[in-house]
Amino acid sequence: MAQTVFEPWNDPDAKPIIQFKNVTKRFGDFTAIDDLTIDIYEREFFALLGPSGCGKTTMMRMLAGFETPTDGTILLQGKDIAPISPNKRAVNMMFQSYALFPHLSVWENIAFGLKRDKMAKDQIAARVDEMLRLTRLEKFARRKPHQISGGQRQRVALARSLAKAPKLLLLDEPLGALDKKLRQDTQFELMDIQEKTGTTFVIVTHDQEEAMTVASRVAVMDHGKIIQVATPAEIYETPNSTYVADFIGDVNLIEGRAEQDGDKVRVAWAEGQPAIVGTTTRQFDKGQTCHFAIRPEKVAITATKPENIANAVKGKIHDIAYLGNISTYHVALPNGHMIKAQAANNRRLSRRSFTWEDDVWLSWTDTAGVLLER
Amino acid sequence: MRKLTWFNVTSLTLGFAFLYLPMVILVIYSFNASKLVTVWAGFSTKWYAELFQNQAFLDAAWVTLRVAVVSSTFATILGTMAAYVMVRAGRFYGRTLFSGMIYAPLVMPEVITGLSLLLLFIGIGLDRGILTIVLAHTTFSMCYVSVVVSSRLVSFDQSLEEAALDLGCSPWQAFRLVTLPIIAPAVISGWLLAFTLSLDDLVIASFTSGPSATTLPMKIWSSVRLGVNPQINALSTIMIAIVTVGVITASLISKRASVRALEDEQAAART
User: Fold this and answer.
1) Based on the domain organization, do A329 and A200 belong to the same domain?
2) How far is it between the farthest Cα atoms of chain B?
């Protein structure tokens, strides 16, 4: 079945809305952004993901105009934005603290940007009402920001930044202050609004689940560099480095020496243990140090040795983390190495098959993990 | 609530007596019928009537009021600007020196401030009068304003201003439409502080005034030197009344605002 997939980054004719070209930003001796080049396309929901201090907020502040690059250029629709001051940019930002004006009502907060554009009064009213409807805030128009709840404040901030219909909306940790349940609801709301308005969203977050949920593409950052840019599925299934594999989700990392045979690689990783068999499209030299990364949910746990599977190791259950829907088993191998395996709790807890100190077999296919050079 | 012990009662009484006895005596004697300040001769309000006939006092009061309003307004504008730069400009060469210099007049003896201003006015050939008092009061009270305003600005969330810029404000619009309304209470209390300082200043006004301008504290001081006049008691009583009413009003307003904020928060929590 033919389906049009939204992936302008694979289309050589697509024009990016934002281009970072060799952008570097230094604060004194500290390099926040290090020679960074990236294209972001129209209608994308682009997530910048990384630990605090990795430079993601600096990138966003450069787009908004609050910081200027030390080197390199940033293009918005092909035009260098360096000489344009923040109040002249067709870019709006939703702040982490929301930055709602406490002395103005919800209605006036949303109208604030429109009034600066000298828009006619009735047009402003129409636009504000439209925004209130979009964010389901009609009932709260006359309230002050301190008279509404955290989730409502978050929606006011979103409505205010969307009111001017920017080409690009920047969201700085937009859901950081909400509790988990509300955050998940709001993520879907955000995606919905992004789709309805057709605005390009760039979101900064340190929450990998949030990035995976909302984004069309995720850029994983560390120390001012982008380590990998890809769709959430690619980032999760085929990370390009142990840093990305480790940052996104849970992972078992096993270091060993490679011996390649076609697309199959045997990884010798411990004395007395059979080599791990994996599949790769890369080339590894014989004896090259490599890392085998496998997600815990791709490791099967059984009481007896499974037949006809590429990899099987025996171990003893050291610890069990019960998370309700799933359990994570920490299995100690005879050489002391610990491997995590995840299994769905499809039976009640009292009827669980395994418990502490049980001898179990861990197994996985030769395509379950990825082989990484670093 | 704990019971008041005799020790607590005594300390409370002594403390309040120490603070307020002089003023109470002054107020009582302002209603004294006798011209002698220390001899009670029955209740009378005649000194008040006489006070309002005394053109010299009324003129001095008018000068003081004008000086206080103008100088505290200038001091508020300058002090707010200084505070804004000190809090916002980040690090620049000589910042510590500058901020130290803004606060130095707070601890500078008034005599020195007054003398240096006098020498300056003589040096540049400025005739001493209301203008010079206004300039002098602006100079010494703007540092008080900048202390009050900068303590508010330190806790001001800077992303509010960035949000205003982001939504299309010029830096001046961002200040006028967002920062100023939010820090207004601090600016107003800075103005009130400057106003009171100017109202009761004697030393600096004495240095910088000329024959054409006499402020009320100067007038009171010079009349007391000729002997305490019951009119002065009456005048002081009026000033005490004005200050008391002002303080009570201000605290009522701020209390009502905090009660309302609390109610609002509770209303928000319910929704």
Assistant:
1) no
2) 72
| Residues in chain B closer than 8 A to A171 (CB atoms) | none
C-beta atoms of B157 and A113 within 8 A: no
A179: Cα separation from own chain's centroid: 18
Residue-range definition of the domain harbouring residue A297: 253-372
As for the ipTM of the complex, it is: 0.81
Tell me, yes or no, if A96 comes closer than 8 A to chain B by beta carbon. Answer: yes
What's the one-letter identity of residue B265? E
Contact between B166 and A102 using a beta-carbon 8 Å cutoff: no
Distance of CA B166 to the CA centre of its chain: 38
- What average pLDDT score do residues A5-18 get? 84
Q: Tell me the nearest-neighbour CA distance from B18 into chain A, angstroms.
A: 43
- Asked if residue B146 is part of any domain, the answer here is yes
pLDDT in tens, B140-171: 899 999 988 988 888 888 899 999 999 999 99
What the block records as the tokens of A208 is 């990998």
Strands A276-279 and A264-268: antiparallel
Those residues whose C-beta lies under 8 Å from the C-beta of residue A175, and which sit 6 or more positions away, are A154, A183, A186, A187, A190, A205, A207, A210
User: Domain of B200: which CATH number?
Assistant: 1.10.3720.10
Neighbour-count burial of B44, counting CB atoms closer than 10 A to its CB (0-12 exposed, 13-18 middle, 19+ buried): middle
Q: Which residues of B211-242 are buried (b: 16+ CB within 10 A; e: fewer)?
A: eebbbbbbbbbebeeeeebbbbbbbbbebeee
Residue bearing tokens 């025996």: A314
CB atoms within 10 A of CB B107: 7
Number of domains comprising chain B:
1
Question: Would you call A147 and B268 a contact, using CB atoms and an 8 Å cutoff?
Answer: yes
Compute the distance between CA of residue A269 and CA of residue A337 in angstroms, rounded to an integer: 10
